[in-house]
Write a structure and sequence with these properties.
It is built from eleven helices and twelve strands. It is globular, with a radius of gyration of 19 Å. The chain is an alpha/beta fold. Helix 3 links the parallel strand 4 (68-69) and strand 5.
């Protein structure tokens, strides 16, 4: 993506739904996203299941995980699933990858020590890329080991060959802490933090860039994303109430002033001014995650039609 272009994505909250996705595809929105847990405390979906639904129910937009908890999955299984979805979608999948840790029970249930989640995530990224490179591949790491494995993406009906992108789907690293920033700089195709203020986002860009330079990495094509909990309404007070209700309890009853620093809310003009600060800090692909219990399509419509045109790269 060009450094002088700003694009918008949208999270399919609370669950991917066919009509909602169809409506979003008619908007100037470039991507749709969903994540998920294996053992969430509520009856919400799992990341790969949601990704498959979004892939099947869309035709144009990129589809991504926000986020896929890599340490909970074996990379050989995951590589095949993602390769097939990328091929069936015509190369539209993006893997938003994270370490998780919110729910210890799901780590215990699959036999993954919580303390290993960062190292497993890094090794999994390396294994995925090796498996997507084509030909027999062997990998012997600290956590995963396999010999002479050849991954063959599914060939879509009516096609003569698989449509997975060469090298596989891009992997963007999500998180908020420095280990995730370093992982993005060394192994990722992009950086996608969440619940960050504009100033913190700017610091993360500096950290990722410095780490990449120190490792001698070429950052051409690297994507700077932001996963942004947000509410936009004609009535700005309603939008601020949305965020307070949606995020306040989930993050320990944080005060509104704190939430407003990390979750923009208000009228289209108010939110545009807040998001412009992220653009000035380096964000170029902003994923709007509606922080509301209802009327989430309205938030995405206002973001795409009235907020996005106001954002500029200086």
């Amino acid at each position: 993506m060009s450094d002088d272009k700003i694009v918008l994505g949208a999270a399919a909250i609370p669950e991917p739904e066919r009509d909602w996705l169809a409506a979003v595809e008619r908007l100037p929105v470039e991507s749709v996203w969903q994540g998920g847990h294996l053992l969430p405390p509520t009856g919400t979906g799992e990341a790969m299941t949601r990704l498959a639904l979004m892939t099947a129910w869309t035709e144009r937009v990129r589809v991504g995980t926000s986020v896929l908890l890599l340490p909970l999955y074996h990379p050989v299984v995951l590589a095949k699933q993602l390769a097939d979805l990328d091929s069936r979608s015509g190369g539209r999948v993006t893997v938003g990858a994270g370490v998780g840790g919110e729910f210890r029970s799901e780590f215990d249930a699959v036999g993954v020590p919580l303390r290993e989640r960062g190292a497993r995530t890094s090794e999994s990224i390396e294994a995925l890329r090796a498996l997507w490179a084509g030909g027999p591949v062997s990998h012997h790491g600290k956590f995963y080991s396999f010999d002479d494995v050849t991954l063959r993406p599914v060939v879509p009906p009516g096609c003569s060959a698989a449509a997975m992108r060469p090298g596989g789907p891009p992997i963007v690293v999500a998180g908020r802490k420095e280990p995730a920033m370093r992982r993005a700089a060394r192994l990722g195709d992009g950086w996608m933090p969440y619940l960050m203020s504009p100033s913190a986002y700017a610091r993360s860009v500096a950290t990722v860039t410095a780490e990449a330079v120190a490792s001698g990495r070429d950052m051409s094509g690297f994507e700077w994303l932001l996963f942004c909990y947000c509410s936009i309404r004609r009535d700005g007070d309603r939008a601020r109430d949305d965020v307070a209700s949606f995020l306040g309890a989930a993050y320990g009853g944080k005060p509104r002033a704190m939430l407003e620093r990390v979750a923009p809310a208000g009228t289209p003009s108010e939110v545009a001014a807040l998001l412009q600060q992220y653009v000035d800090a380096g964000a170029r692909h902003i994923v709007i995650s509606p922080a509301a219990q209802s009327d989430t399509l309205e938030i995405v419509e206002l973001a795409s039609k009235e907020v996005l045109p106001r954002l500029t790269v200086s």
